[in-house]
Amino acid sequence: MVNPLITRKEDNPVSTPSKNAKRLFQAVYYAQNPPAEEQKDIPRLSVSEIVSKMAFYYEKIRNTVEYKEEHLFRKNAIERILKRQIVIEGAISPGAKGAEIAEHLLTELIRAGYLPNNTIPETKISEFGQIIDKYISLRRYAVEGYSSLQIKERNALTNWIMALAASDMEERLGRSQVDLVVIDYMYQALLDDISLEDANEYETDREIQIFVAIHRSYLKFDREMLSFILLKYFHPNWLKASEEEIADVGKNILSIKKSIEDQIDHPLTPQLNRIVSRYTVFFQILNDVIANNPVKVYESFFKDPVAFSRMIKQAAGKKYHDAKSKLWRAAVRSILYIFITKSFFAFILEIPATRWFGEEINPISLFINVTFPAILLFLIVLFSRMPSEANSLKIVEGIKEIVFEENQRKEPHRLRQPAKRSAFSNSMFGIIYAITFFLSFGAVVWALNAIHFSPVSIIIFLFFLALVSFFSIRIRKNAKELLILPPKENVFSFIADFFYVPIVSAGKWLSENFSKVNVFVFVLDFIIEAPFKVFVAITEEWTRYVKERKDEIV
Asked: In the chain, what are the domain boundaries?
């Protein structure tokens, strides 16, 4: 009898890795085994470890009250510091040089823990100073070229330019050689695997849209960072732009911004996102497998081909486990964010508002409205579905397609011409959607009335229901991105989506609009941050002075 534990050998045990796959193995290997470099005695930026703790914990608090993705923390911090130093403080003391601003910026990033201490060479100050000068010039040319803009429009344009500057500096701080190789690898693979149907009017946008989709999916770029790579696409010399080129971009900034936004909101985006998100999973797990032991994995192609599939499954399992952990961390962050920025005000407002309308305060409704967001989010995360074994097998198949020449995809993914509905169809669907909206919220209102909720309590409950529903979609995004196999649809899921989507849409609208009036962020940014950073800087200078006096005594 054959031992059931013996793995069946494949019919074609030897596979040939592609040229791009070999490049990725080399990039990972050299990243793990960098050539020995002489320790050059060059000045490096250094800050007080003790004083930095204050700035570090301040950033922790601020990131809690403003819900953003963790991988965007540093870029957002750069943007915030630039706005404060150039737009706010620059209005008070104009004429600040880029190098001066850059030194403050890098120092603050080190204090806050976004950059390592005593590692960044001081030459980075002049590099970043030139970048800042470039965007200050761009802002000046843009304001001069569009002097007729209203104050609100001018502020929006300034914010966009500051976001571009932050994205520029973030790219120079955070792009590894492995990421660059993966992006090029993905791009080459997707160029071959994605085609458009005949006579598709967007054929000329295919290549740039694939490039944008890779950055959106694999590197998790936000809208501002996508704007920056598109700016480089439209103006290839932007990184080393001359003053004439900066002036030309500034004088045409609105038309350039419009072209960039058209590409970010391109009609092909939904179709491309679905395809590229699958390849993102393949490349993330392939990278994890290679990083574990590049030499051993590469040798397995020829010595034990079945081992590669086993390694992929193990890496996928670890990815699922990590996604579950991140899901719970994101849930805790979301609960803290909602409780601090929303529940607190709801609790304060519900009692006086109820008394104002002459209603009796219902302790049960008050308790439910305060605890409901956390409980609902906890239950949603608890019952979130993780990928199955069949999903892992699909990942193995997909990775083999991009690694081995013998397994390359034969038929490309074909992008359809985006459907254009008639005005009548849009009107009909709009009416049906409005009906589901009122039915969904109407059913909740009826249930709350049945347990004697006051009108104020009902409004607060609906507010949190929509907000938490939207946040549940956001925090489950990373786990859902690992699902290669589409979820099975049934009557229950169809009905649930039919009535749940309006609630999620309302939550998205509330999140986007209420985030603009986040009182805690306003207080931190415009009242606390500037004097706090001055206090930190003075404290650090004082500790440096005390150390110098101590050295003199010794």
From this structure: 48-175+203-266+518-553, 280-517
